[in-house]
Amino acid sequence: MNFLADTIIGFNNLETILTPITNQFSVVNITSFITGIISMGVPFVFLWWGVRKLDRAILKVATKGKIGI
């Protein structure tokens, strides 16, 4: 048994794999996926920004004794 000969995928086999995959995805599906990723990522960016601002404010109060916004 030749290992390489058994594992090589021919073009016909590749086509039978790719056809169902390409039929499942459309521009609408891809666009909605990207939109979902972005809409879930925006709150995390604001959370990161808020935590950094809060951290700076706490450190400023602790080191200099000044409160600022």
List the helices and strands and how they pair.
Blueprint: H1 3-7, H2 11-24, H3 27-64
Explain what this protein looks like in three dimensions.
The chain has one domain. The termini are far apart. Helix content is 83%, strand content 0%. The protein is built from three helices and no strands. The protein has helices at 3-7, 11-24, 27-64. It has 69 residues and is mainly α. The model has no long low-confidence stretch (mean pLDDT 82).
Q: Write down the domain tally.
A: 1
- SSE order in H/E notation? HHH
Instruction: State which percent range the strand residues make up.
Output: under 5%
In total, the number of strands is 0
Largest sheet: none
Please compute the radius of gyration using only Cα atoms. Answer: 26 Å
Overall form: rod-shaped
Q: Helical segment tally?
A: 3
Distance between the termini: 73 Å
Question: Mean pLDDT, rounded to whole units?
Answer: 82
Low-confidence stretches: none
Secondary-structure content class = mainly alpha
Helical residue percent band: over 70%
What labels describe this entry?
single chain, 69 residues, 3 helices
Provide a short characterization of the protein structure.
The protein is mostly helical.
